[in-house]
Amino acid sequence: MSGGSRYVHLVDTPPGDPSVRPAATDRRIPFDVVFNVRDLGGLRTSSGGFTRRGVLYRGDGVQRLAGADLDRARALRLETVIDLRTLGEIERSGRFPIEDYPLRWYSLPILERMWSDDDLAPTTGAVDFLRDRYLAMLDEGVRSLAQIVEIVAEGSTVLFHCAAGKDRTGVTAAVLLGLLEVPAAEIIDDYHATAGAMAAFVDWLSSTRPEAIDAMTSQPPEYLEAPAAAMAGFLQAVDERFGSMEGYVTGIGVPAATIEQLRAALVV
Question: Of all residues in the chain, what percent carry a pLDDT higher than 90?
Answer without folding.
Answer: 70
